[in-house]
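Q: Study each token:
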Amino acid sequence: INKRLLHESQAHAGDAHHAHHVADAHHAHHAANAHHAANAHHAANAHHAANAHHAANAHHAANAHHAANAHHAANAHHAANAHHAANAHHAANAHHAADANHGFHFNLHDNNSHTLHHAKANACFDDSHHDDAHHDGAHHDDAHHDGAHHDGAHHDGAHHDGAHHNATTHH
């Protein structure tokens, strides 16, 4: 329980505005060009990272510039141009957004192409953008997260199971 509380406090810490060179960008998934991202989970040997400038452990992260805890961010997978974003969970173009997962301090520049919603913690995208089909196949299937690299133990519990990708049970 203590580890869970510590993890939650770190993973969902608010007001990380302009976090420069922030460590523990946990699970920055499929993000390339993670500029100055430190300890973006599984980023040593920058696996599948394109132009990961000064990124240590930036696992699959795309363009998560100065992002701390940009969980699953696309172009940072589900997050386009998450510049200075802290905990931008499934956020699109969350520029200077702190804790976008919980829906406050938005400064979007995407002309509502990827609308972030304030109502529900995990319902950041509309159904057309963030449906189950978006997470299936070779892109985000179980095979992608197995083995020692990204195994079930790493993604178990409420953190990355089915509850994590719905709108009600994760938080």
About this structure: Confidence is low (pLDDT under 50) at residues 7-64, 66-171. The two ends are 16 Å apart (CA to CA). The first strand starts at residue 42 and ends at 43. The beta strands are 42-43, 57-58.
